[in-house]
Amino acid sequence: MAWFTRFVNSMRPRLPNDERGRMRAVANNLILHLHPTRVPAPALQMRRTWGLGGISALLTVILVLSGILLMFRYDASIERAYQSIQFLETAVPFGSLLRAIHHWSGNLLVITVTLHLVRVFFTGGFYGPRRSNWIFGLALLLLVLFFNFTGYLLPWDQLAFWAITVGVGLLDYVPLLGEAMATFLLGGREVGQAALRNFYALHVAVLPALLMLMLSYHFWRVRKDGGIALPTPSGPVEKLTTIPHLVGIELGVALLTLTALLGFAMLVPAPLEELANPAHPPNPAKAAWYFLGLQELLLHMHPLAAMLLSGSVMLGLAAVPYWDRDEAAIGIVGRSARGREAGLVGFLLSLLITPSLVVIDEWWLDLPSLLPTWSTLITNGVLPLALSLAGLALIYALLRYPLRARPSEALVGLFSFIGGALVVLTVVGVFLRGPDMVLMWP
Amino acid sequence: MTSSDLPTTLSRRDFLSLGLGALGLAGLLQSGAITYQFLAPRTIEGEFGGVVHAGELVSFPPGSVTEFPDGRFFLVRLDDGGLLAVYRRCTHLGCAVAWHPTEDRFTCPCHGSHFDQAGVVENPPAPRPLDTFAITLRDGQISVDTARPQRRDHFSVDQVVYG
Q1: Residues of B in contact with A184 (CB under 8 A)
Q2: pLDDT tens digits for A236-249?
């Protein structure tokens, strides 16, 4: 067995024993050199990042690989798309598993990038030069959502057809350009063959190319900005070599993610509803779960108002680095003890206020019939939008003055309030909406 | 350097680089226009959007609502005998409405809008009545032009065609 021992020994990676050698190994490797050669010890604590950026990157790789395989078995025609998915589910070896991996990775990616955003916000990862990467990250979040949006038309089932119909229907309300944009995107007046082909090209070519460019920039900026945001150190900080300290953690997190994903994909196949029927929407017709928060908003206000409200939140997020310049708080979760308190207050208030507003608007308050002479654009659009924005301003003022929080701390509270509202609206949309979108106990 | 010191004539080098920039811009705009026209939607003859022959007036009794799935519309014969071709696309976000004869109304399952027989909103969020298509009545034969849905803010008698 001497040959076997020799073989095993020859396969063993020969890592240099000294620090300099290991640092050079990182610098000279195409992939590893995304990392610095050494990292500060506090950056390696799991509770600092929860590995969310890394998990998202891993999911992206999985999505690309499984997506390429799926392309070989998919037909982007309305006569055959659904059939090809059924064939994949029933006849192609590992077809169901690969589709499940792709589907659930896409879903999980929405969660991990959102949590990544939350983590970066709470640790102040947007101060100073990190500002540009924060805004870039927001653009990447929109890109991920657009990826999911284009992806779920492709199976050509009922969810696909009606979710895209409703989603593109939103565009019609954008003044001046909206209808032209919707027609251009769909390649016609309604969702059909042209729309399927357009969405397929976007999903497998245009968006991946964009994602490659944007992700490269995102990673490069992280290095340029000096890695993840850490509290300003009071003394010298211990630095550890990337091999084995960081790479070891990354491998561990990657293996855990892969195991969880594979286990889930084996147990739960990707859903497939009935063949798309343009004459009969399912009842209730719901979008994918991560858009149900927005769909819930649509039940309460004019589409333009709902879009403006979500747009204001996105713009507000992009403005955070210009609003909060409390750079001394970098790396401290929630800025300070008071900031964490403001965050908790904001979140709890949201858990109280948002469901109350949903219930009040559903059962008692009917602005359009209270003010029958006014246009519904005002009673159902301008008024709810103004009330929501005023409510948010009030929350901010409440945290700022009675609680005497600094702007940066009050912003933590406002962020938590909006995050809580999104969670509540999503839960209501997913679980508490029955046939005809009536509010009901599940 | 004050503005009076700026040269009043354009050097040959500046002229050429300006020209090069302008050409580059023109090239970019042309590529954009080519891409746009290449990708612009185009309708195919014979698809939804043509004239649909619905049949004879006598086969639709007053008070009836008949669905034409290929034409994407409901032919409504009002109680007074008037005709309306109601586009099935909900004016809220584009779901297909369904006719419920027992409740005498159109409902949209996506966001819960209701419309009466003439397509007028009974329950929001739909912002305006269902769109209609133009009807031509000749020798008792009904034909519906599905090329252009007609928007309306409220119901009025001139939207109805009488035999």
Answers
A1: 39-41
A2: 888 888 888 898 89
For range B79-93, the mean pLDDT: 87
A333 touches B: beta carbon within 8 Å: no
Final residue of a domain: which of A275, A305, A330? A275
Considering Cα of A318, then A319, then A320, then A322, what sign does the dihedral take? positive
Which residues of chain B neighbour A169 with C-beta distances below 8 Å? 92-95
User: Which residue type, as a one-letter code, is found at position A83?
Assistant: Q
Q: Are residues A267 and A394 located together in one domain of the fold?
A: no
Is A227 within 8 Å of chain B by CB?
no
Residues of B in contact with A377 (CB under 8 A): 127
pLDDT the model gives residue B5: 67
pLDDT digits (tens, 9 = 90+) for A383-392: 889 999 999 9
The highest-confidence range among A10-19, A63-72, B107-116, by mean pLDDT, is A63-72
Contact B109 A184 (CB under 8 A): no
DSSP class of B58: G
Entry pTM: 0.88
Distance CA(A100)–CA(A146), nearest Å, equals 19
CB distance A416 to A344 below 8 Å: yes
- My answer on whether A242 and A373 are in the same domain is no
Q: Taking CB atoms and an 8 Å cut-off, how many pairs form between chains A and B?
A: 81
Query: Over 60: is that where the pLDDT of B45 sits?
Result: no
Q: If you average pLDDT over residues B48-54, what whole number do you get?
A: 76
Instruction: Nearest by CB to A376, from B89, B108, B127: name it.
Output: B127
Residues A288, A271, single domain; the answer is no
End-of-domain residue from the set A226, A245, A275: A275
Structure tokens at A146: 């657009």
Q: Which residue in chain A has the smallest CA separation from B71?
A: A279
> At B4, is the pLDDT very low, low, confident or very high (cuts 50, 70, 90)?
low
Q: Which of B81, B68, B89, B82 is nearest to B132 (CA)?
A: B89
What's at A338, amino acid-wise?
R
Which chain B residues are closer than 8 Å to A369 by Cβ? none
Return mean pLDDT, chain A. 90
Which domain range does residue A427 map to?
Answer: 283-437
Same domain (yes/no): A194, A333:
no
| Residue A364 falls in which region: left (phi positive, over 0), alpha (psi -120 to 50) or beta | alpha
Number of domains in chain A: 2
